[in-house]
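Tip: read the tokens left to right.
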């Protein structure tokens, strides 16, 4: 599909009437909760403001790229109800939606040329060995590591000498000393001194591909991004990028930097993210409503709504706390349990196929089963044992006392005929109470164990209609012999 090419120099982003936000992951693996921390606030902000949510891929890390990762991201986001308005699957006027395609089109080359023409970018031939020596000396002096801008003002003769040595330059952006200011919807006014930002940042690799520092700015300009919402680990990057926006004569977007997400013990999440993929949470039976509600509520003082529309209206970047937040899998599971308890069979049906046998969705008594099961599970993966209990004959219990066998014989003789309803259990046990004088656990527990093979589980009022008369008679008869 042909897409309109915008100038990386002249487009003023906030001229657009529609708020536009973006989520820009690298396709180096499956989507995980760290990605959710960036994607969800952007999607909710776009929904709340009737704006556009764009997904673009920063696919310049060729060594770490994973085959089909982009399609996997799209699938995970669709399952989470975070389908973007524009992406490689749904192109708009500001595509293409990955860095390499925009690189091939010349977007970054044009921007770099403008920066070099105005003296704001330059070729740097500093070798990796020289950089390492530089860092060692700085550490020895207890100084923070930084590039000392040594190649800012090379002559053409010096450049040719380096080229003759076989050195291939990177391109660095020349930071101008002084204050860098920008407003942040979460953190308030931010002020940095350019001379404290670690030296001039690399914006183009020696291979010619752009780094995020430049590529993100050029893409945001060309795509008309009005709000950049991301983690606070990007705050220093933002300070550098503010000068790049300004050098390219572009209006600054509005920034919002979300607090860092730690694990529940307060440690960095980086080592755990591989085990917290959206795909894995899905296979564990965690529902998208629970993930969205839990992730959106991190950093707020009140619980987030569960429904997506309500969540978008509730979500307010200006009310997020500034302290780091903690991701707690147990809390996510508890929220998932509450989601499950409120879902009707029709609501949950799209998710059941991954957890029940293939023919289960066609069972006539499935609604009774769901009503019985949903109060007793935390995740959909917990359904397997309950399904076996309801629809498959449990193992014989050899420990049934003689007096209970007599009681179960009476229960078999008084078992109603026909279709069972949620009232059948109460009516049946009422008759048995009158006939046997039993009550409480003595009345209910032998029936439960005979019918389900368990001494605990779903409410028998809902479970008995699932088991049905024929299976109930078979199970009781076996226990009476």
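Filled-in amino acids:
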């Amino acid at each position: 599909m042909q897409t309109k090419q915008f100038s990386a120099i002249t487009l003023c982003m906030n001229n657009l009437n529609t708020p536009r936000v973006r989520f820009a992951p690298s396709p180096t693996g499956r989507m995980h909760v760290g990605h959710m921390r960036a994607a969800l606030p952007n999607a909710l902000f776009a929904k709340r403001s009737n704006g556009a949510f764009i997904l673009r891929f920063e696919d310049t890390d060729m060594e770490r790229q994973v085959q089909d990762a982009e399609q996997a991201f799209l699938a995970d986001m669709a399952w989470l109800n975070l389908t973007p308005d524009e992406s490689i699957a749904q192109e708009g006027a500001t595509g293409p939606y990955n860095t390499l395609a925009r690189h091939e089109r010349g977007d970054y080359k044009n921007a770099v040329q403008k920066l070099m023409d105005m003296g704001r970018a330059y070729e740097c031939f500093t070798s990796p060995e020289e950089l390492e020596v530089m860092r060692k000396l700085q550490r020895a002096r207890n100084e923070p590591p930084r590039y000392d801008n040594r190649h800012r003002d090379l002559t053409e003769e010096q450049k040719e000498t380096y080229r003759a040595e076989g050195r291939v330059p990177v391109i660095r952006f020349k930071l101008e000393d002084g204050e860098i200011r920008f407003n942040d919807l979460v953190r308030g006014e931010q002020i940095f001194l350019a001379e404290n930002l670690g030296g001039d940042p690399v914006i183009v690799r020696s291979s010619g591909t752009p780094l995020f520092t430049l590529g993100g700015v050029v893409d945001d300009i060309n795509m008309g991004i009005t709000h950049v919402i991301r983690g606070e680990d990007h705050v220093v990057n933002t300070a550098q990028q503010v000068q790049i926006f300004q050098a390219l004569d572009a209006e600054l977007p509005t920034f919002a930097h979300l607090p860092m997400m730690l694990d529940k013990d307060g440690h960095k999440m980086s080592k755990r993210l591989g085990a917290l993929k959206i795909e894995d949470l899905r296979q564990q039976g965690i529902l998208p409503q629970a993930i969205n509600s839990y992730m959106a509520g991190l950093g707020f003082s009140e619980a987030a709504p569960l429904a997506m529309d309500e969540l978008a209206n509730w979500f307010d970047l200006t009310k997020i706390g500034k302290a780091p937040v903690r991701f707690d899998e147990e809390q996510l599971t508890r929220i998932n349990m509450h989601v499950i308890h409120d879902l009707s069979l029709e609501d949950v049906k799209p998710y059941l196929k991954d957890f029940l046998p293939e023919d289960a969705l066609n069972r006539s008594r499935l609604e009774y089963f769901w009503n019985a099961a949903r109060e007793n599970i935390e995740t959909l993966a917990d359904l397997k044992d309950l399904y076996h209990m309801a629809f498959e004959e449990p193992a014989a219990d050899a420990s049934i006392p003689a007096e209970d066998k007599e009681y179960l014989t009476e229960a078999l003789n008084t078992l109603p005929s026909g279709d069972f309803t949620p009232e059948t259990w109460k009516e049946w046990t009422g008759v048995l109470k009158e006939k046997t004088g039993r009550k409480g656990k003595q009345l209910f527990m032998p029936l439960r164990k005979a019918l389900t093979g368990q001494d605990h589980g779903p409410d028998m009022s809902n479970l008995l209609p699932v088991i049905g008369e024929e299976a109930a008679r078979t199970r009781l008869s076996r226990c009476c012999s």
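Confidence is low (pLDDT under 50) at residues 1-16. The radius of gyration is 31 Å.
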